[in-house]
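User: Last request for today: this protein with fe (iii) ion, please.
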Amino acid sequence: MPNSTSKRRLWRDVRVFDGLRTLPEPMAVVTEGTRIASLVAMRDADENLVEGCSDMGRGGVMTPGLVDCHTHLVFGGGRADEFEARLEGASYEEIARRGGGILSTVRATREASEEELLALARPRLEALIADGVTTVEIKSGYGLDVASELKMLRVARRLGEELPVRVVTTLLGAHALPPEFKGDSDGYIDLVCREMVPAATQAGLADAVDVFCEKIAFSVAQCERVFVAAEAHGLPIKAHAEQLSNLGGTAMAARHGALSADHIEYLDAAGIAAMREAGSVAVILPGAFHTLRETQQPPIAALRKAGVPMAVATDANPGSSPLFMPTLMLNLACTLFRLTPQEALAGMTAHGATALGLAGQGRIREGAEADLCLWNVESPAGLAYAVQPGRLRQRLFQGELTHGN
Ligand code: DI6
Ligand code: FE
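Assistant: Here's the final one, the structure of the complex with fe (iii) ion:
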């Protein structure tokens, strides 16, 4: 009997979306241990390939495991009251200015214990996993003091230890101004730079550092100070930028070599040029656009023309995107922003991985990690076309079957 690390599995006659494009012919795919061992056209599959493989069946659409590169999955409390207030006409910014919004989640998150936050986040992450996610980024940003930010990051790390998914953590200390620093946002940025970034680094809890560059959050100059601190600690950076207005945060982040700029509805030509120059990924978040009933579209056609890779993510969070379904984001990215289904899928596989500093992952090719999904859909475009939970037939994480049989 081969042991589990050398076990060979064979899928026949699958349509493969390889992370960048749909392969033209039906394929045979073999995994061995934690890797993809072979990827060959069905008509070239011979006896040698099949030798010693367990038969995983035929048909279906295979994609890399989905990569959700932007989430805020760890939080306490809920914001249904804010949802209702927005439906009655209050704006996201007004609610934030009167101490609701992100700050209401901060209150609930500070009060919750690490165990409570873990118990709350676990089913959210299980929902993403059931919809095909094998890599997820999770941000802090609802603690806004050193102890509470570290508590959130520890929860994110524990989720990755307890569930079959790769978790990448991001310190988002500069998400909002906590009430105890009212009137002293520079003082809070001092705390982020001098205490939070060093503490998260020393504890090994942050894989990257993020900021919210916006009028209701932090200025370009303040965000730049956070990036300088991150660089001093060897951490990559990214930004929530140009979501509600154009401040130029994206161009500044790109000058610092940002992995990504996220939201970017208000991004201008100079920002796009800076991203192209830096090789930053544009992270498109249609769930927040939909939830906030925004009207300013991200500059998709210009990003496409400039060759800036576009990722698509859930932004799953209690305020602006309480939507915990990655394949819904594929649909919204196409319907709201006119991405092609292939672009949306690449955005949640290969380009999502690049946005996390994992360039080369989120692909199906020989030698790649066997993080795979097999779907009951007519074609790869079918994943974006219909919104229908339960289409995941099989899921492999690091070569292990975690869903289906
Ligand atoms: N932009 C977002 O979409 C999330 N954070 C941010 O800076 C929303 C966070 C929230 O409303 O709780
Ligand atoms: Fe976000």
